[in-house]
Write a structure and sequence with these properties.
Blueprint lengths: L19 E2 L3 H5 L1 H11 L2 E7 L2 E6 L2 H8 L5 E2 L6 H4 L10 H4 L10 H15 L4 H19 L4 E3 H6 L2 H9 L4 H16 L3 H21 L5 H7 L6 H14 L2 H16 L1 H6 L2 H11 L5 E7 L3 E3 L2 E3 L5 E4 H10 L20 H18 L4 E2 L21 E3 L33 H5 L5 H9 L3
Parallel strand pairs: 1-2, 3-9
Antiparallel strand pairs: 2-3, 4-6, 5-11, 6-9, 7-8, 10-11
Length: 450
């Protein structure tokens, strides 16, 4: 007789038809236990990702791969979302900014998707690895300087979450007055608190960046996108920037933070400086976006035998799929953390380089860094999509801050704008209202020696 699967402690799914909540502290504390429970239920599991928002979560590796590689049956255009069209999703739902349709390559299909995605991949290809590494190292040194003399830090808040935001602002040619709002918008959108307001701030900021670059292009990703033969409209450009800056913010920050966790909890990696191996291990076991890849069936169909309805929100659990293979001892290069198929991450190589460079820069500057608390006391942030620590306290021997290195002249940087707008739009009150400093402006001043 087969023993029925037992839900993890705190799991609400104790009977037929019960949905598993992905936005709870219990799930965040031990998602792998939930994934193993879900695997016993079949290739999919019924879940909720926010109050009133239901989805089918694909947890089987082969089923996930098949879905991701079948753009004919499963589409990305969120305007197909049945529950949203029927008014069942609250307009202020915290997950809506990450699921609602935008005219960029994530939410389009067919020829439109190919056109918009090609603009991204070919624009990123114009940025050399050496240039990207220089930008990361400059931002890393600025951030390390803020806490190196203390002998302690929260590596998540003080470094991992901020590093990619500085890098992408520099890479996209953001002037300081726009960049501060970009940082505010990205952080707020992923926090899920006032997410819609933060999304609007971000969209307005990138809209101003597009308008600026139309008049004064530079050697930056924003200008490259404009110059691409795909001929993106201003609306497409703005929403493409929201996608890229968003993906380069929270998920990249979580990747760096989770990789630090791996480095600091697996002695072999830190002792031997195995940054590459630690990053692969992280992508395998603690992927920064563990449950995402929203899809919508064009008609009633099935996922490995489990029925799904037309227009139903179907998510892919990269975390669960990876867990299934990890339990079988599979090679970690087979993970799905970057997704797969036509909608696989279009900028995974730059993302990987940023994370590796950020890891190396920190360990080179603070070689004796170690966890300041027991690893099992660390808390993970609740959230249906992300796998992210709440904090990562560390200690190390205090180090005197280093001065800024003279930057190589490049038109990609906002400080080299030859013809700034005569009357730039002032930053709205939202970023200042949070009590957070204007971080991008501070970085620009440090980098230019002001």
């Amino acid at each position: 007789m087969t023993t029925p699967p037992v839900p993890p402690p705190g799991c609400p799914a104790h009977g037929s038809g019960q949905r598993i909540s992905l936005d709870t502290p219990e799930f965040a504390a031990n998602p792998h236990a939930y994934y193993r429970y879900m695997h016993q239920l079949g290739p999919t599991a019924p879940v909720t990702i926010a109050p009133g928002v239901e989805a089918t979560l694909v947890t089987d590796y082969n089923a996930a791969l098949e879905l991701l590689q079948d753009p004919t049956t499963f589409r990305k255009d969120a305007r197909r979302w049945r529950a949203l069209n029927e008014g069942l999703i609250r307009p202020d739902s915290p997950v809506l900014p990450l699921l609602a349709y935008r005219p960029n390559c994530m939410f389009t299909d067919g020829a439109e998707h190919v056109r918009l995605r090609q603009a991204i991949t070919e624009s990123f290809a114009r940025v050399s690895n050496s240039r990207l590494s220089r930008i990361v190292n400059q931002a890393a040194q600025f951030l390390i300087n803020q806490f190196s003399a203390r002998g302690s830090a929260d590596l998540l808040r003080d470094y991992a979450q901020q590093l990619p935001l500085y890098v992408f602002n520099e890479l996209f040619g953001c002037p300081a007055e726009i960049g501060d709002r970009v940082l505010f918008g990205i952080s707020g959108m992923f926090d899920g608190v006032n997410a819609e307001q933060a999304s609007q701030v971000l969209l307005q900021a990138v809209g101003e960046l597009v308008a600026l670059k139309r008049v004064h292009p530079g050697e930056d990703i924003t200008s490259y996108l404009m110059q691409h033969p795909a001929q993106l409209t201003d609306e497409e450009l703005a929403h493409t920037l929201v996608l890229l800056l968003g993906a380069g913010g929270e998920p990249e920050g979580n990747l760096i933070g989770n990789a630090f966790y791996t480095m600091l909890t697996v002695e072999e990696y830190a002792r031997n400086g195995q940054f590459d191996k630690a990053l692969d291990d992280t992508l395998w076991r603690n992927a920064p976006m563990s449950n995402y890849a929203p899809h919508y069936p064009v008609s009633d169909t099935d996922v490995a035998g489990d029925k799904v309805r037309a227009g139903e929100l179907v998510l892919v659990s990269f975390g669960a799929a990876n867990t299934a293979l990890a339990d079988q001892g599979a090679d970690t290069r087979g993970h799905l953390a970057w997704s797969a198929g036509p909608h696989a991450c279009p900028s995974k190589e730059p993302a990987r380089l940023i994370a590796l460079t950020g890891l190396e820069a920190l360990f080179n500057a603070l070689p004796d860094v170690e966890l300041a608390v027991p690893a099992d006391s660390l808390a993970w942030r609740p959230g249906p999509f992300n796998r992210a620590l709440a904090s990562l306290p560390v200690r190390f021997g205090a180090v005197t801050p280093r001065p800024a290195a003279a930057p190589a002249p490049t038109a990609a940087s906002p400080r080299h704008q030859a013809h700034p707008p005569q009357a730039p739009t002032p930053a709205p009150a939202e970023p200042q209202a949070t009590g957070k400093p204007a971080r991008w402006s501070s970085f620009v001043r440090w980098l230019t020696g002001q």
